[in-house]
Amino acid sequence: MSPLKTSGFHHITMVSTDAPRTLAFYGTLLGLGMVKKTVNFDDPAAYHLYFGDDGGRPGTILTFFEWRHAQRGHWGVGGVHHLALGVATPEAQLKWKRRLTDAGIPVNGPIDRGYFKSMYFADPDGQVLEIATAGPGYAIDEPADALGRKLLVPSQERLPDARDEKAIAAATHPEPVPAITPDMRLQGIHHITAITDDLDRAGDFYESALGLSLVKKTYNQDDAVTKHYFWASYDGHTVEPHSSMTLFGWGKAQGRARQGAGQTHHIAFRAEDREQQAEWSDHLRSLGIEVTAVADRTYFESIYFESPDGLLVEIATDGPGFTVDEPIEQLGGALKLPAWLENRRPDIEGALVPLG
Ligand SMILES: [Fe+2]
Ligand SMILES: [Fe+2]
């Protein structure tokens, strides 16, 4: 077990081929606030858009690199399968289904997973998204103070053959939902599901490198033979929100992820501050993991390394946050550049498509 424990996700970064379309989808349709409009500091010709809640609290942040010519990627071993966003209640989840389907977006679900209800759709680049209810949580089939100890076989009623697909497809909110009501507010990262071909090795990594703990060992309820393990920031009593990292355990012969549009570029976990991040670098190196030097991302500081499956993982500091260069009421309004790119602003702005 790690001497350091992350409290959960800081952000997830995905790949878009069309920043205005991504803004329309995540901002207008899903109602997420854009908390920063900037460029990729490693590639200033590309937008880097940040969305988040309450000024961009860690755990609620979704970011996008805009690579207009990126080829479509595909999920597989070493990649992220899907990102789940939280919603408070099943009723609000159905409102989302109505809003999305009325906008022409196919939705699969809600499906009762036991621990929460899940419904699935994709963003315009193909990134698989889920909206998952906050509860009832992981303690429905084992004690809250002993999560993740036993391999649990899902009951028959949870498996595809027992599902009433017609009823699932028909379930929706009875009225159109042209405006997002307060109860529908999306609550940030509910969980992130990635794919490994070695659950034991991947689990060792998330436990020893990041201090996450197993909170559920079960099977994928969509095929019943793939193992599906859940890790989270868990102190033996409480599972932190925005901290569930789940992995499908695929066989060795199944395909690897292909980076590209509609895929996750990397996932970032939280460090409290620079001092803790420095301890983390030392700790990761002591495990034989190659870690980058600290990169100043203006809104946080970052170190990067790879999971044994090849997924790019970051540890980002909580601070200083998105109000470091614009007031909270103006977040996301103007194109912000780090000081060392300001003298190139005319060229950078000229190369970017206006977001409208
Ligand atoms: Fe999920
Ligand atoms: Fe990042």
* Radius of gyration, CA atoms, in whole angstroms: 20 Å
Low-confidence regions: none
Helix percent reads 10-25%
The rough form would be described as: globular
State mean pLDDT (0 to 100 scale).
96
In total, how many beta strands?
Answer: 16
Strand order of the largest sheet: 2-3-4-1-13-16-15-14
Q: How would a crystallographer describe the biggest sheet? A: 8 strands, mixed
What is the string of SSEs from the N terminus onward? Answer: EHEEEEHEEEHEHEEEEHEEEH
**Beta-strand residue fraction:** 25-35%
- How far is the N terminus from the C terminus? 48 Å
Q: What's the helix count? A: 6
Kindly name the structural category: alpha+beta
Ligand inventory reads:
fe (ii) ion
Features:
356 residues, alpha+beta, eight-stranded mixed β-sheet
Structural summary, described in words:
By secondary structure, the protein is α+β, with helices and mostly antiparallel strands. It is built from 6 helices and 16 strands. It has an 8-stranded mixed beta sheet. An 8-stranded mixed beta sheet has the order 6-7-8-5-9-12-11-10. A hairpin with a 4-residue loop joins strand 6 and strand 7. The protein is globular and about 60 Å long. The chain starts with 8 loop residues before the first strand and ends in a 5-residue tail after the last helix. The mean pLDDT is 96. One fe (ii) ion (FE2) binds next to strand 5 and strand 9. The site of one fe (ii) ion has 6 residues, from strand 5 and strand 9.
